[in-house]
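Action item from last meeting closed. Structure (185 res):
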């Protein structure tokens, strides 16, 4: 049985690799939405993938570190309300880690639906509630702007995780041997 907050050497390595990938994708592989400061970020697909494989701590750290590094490199400082929301999104998505059996070679349609319902809820909590409230509290941003950005971010990030994360989990599960699939002749 997978432990929810287990943090092994493998998880530490995955966190470092995931944070590096998240940073690069966040900076260079995104699609503008037309709403200022809000893009469709492919990085969240990677964040969701790693969160589903390694759990909430790895997922949260990957997105938090990756977003903070990206902002700091591109703009000179992090936009902390969104960095926190990024980390929270992948942390919450990682909470389903014990229920998925991707490492055992299983990622059925039912698993994909479960993963996507969960990540959509995580994105909604993080981007429609947490990020706008933190924008208002920390940066005194106008409510109508930040809630609009939050809704667009929640939808675009959920789409990114839904497409990229689900595809990666499906492909990765196919590389794993299913339990009981090997027989002795």
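Sequence:
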């Amino acid at each position: 049985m997978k432990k929810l907050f287990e943090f092994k050497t493998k998880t530490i390595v995955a966190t470092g690799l995931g944070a590096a990938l998240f940073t690069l994708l966040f900076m260079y592989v995104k699609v503008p939405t037309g709403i200022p400061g809000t893009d469709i970020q492919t990085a969240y697909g990677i964040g969701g993938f790693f969160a589903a494989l390694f759990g909430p701590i790895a997922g949260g750290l990957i997105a938090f570190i990756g977003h903070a590094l990206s902002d700091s490199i591109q703009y000179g400082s992090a936009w902390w309300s969104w960095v926190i929301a990024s980390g929270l999104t992948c942390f919450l998505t990682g909470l389903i880690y014990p229920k998925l059996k991707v490492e055992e070679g299983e990622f059925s349609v039912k698993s994909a639906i479960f993963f996507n319902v969960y990540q959509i809820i995580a994105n909604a909590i993080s981007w429609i509630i947490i990020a706008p409230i933190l924008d208002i509290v920390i940066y005194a941003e106008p409510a109508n702007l930040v809630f609009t950005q939050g809704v667009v971010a929640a939808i675009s990030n959920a789409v990114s995780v839904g497409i990229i994360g689900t595809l990666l989990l499906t492909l990765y599960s196919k590389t794993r041997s299913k339990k009981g699939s090997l027989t002795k002749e």
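Note appended to the action item: The domain at 12-30+39-174 is CATH 1.10.1760.20 (Arp2/3 complex 21 kDa subunit ARPC3).
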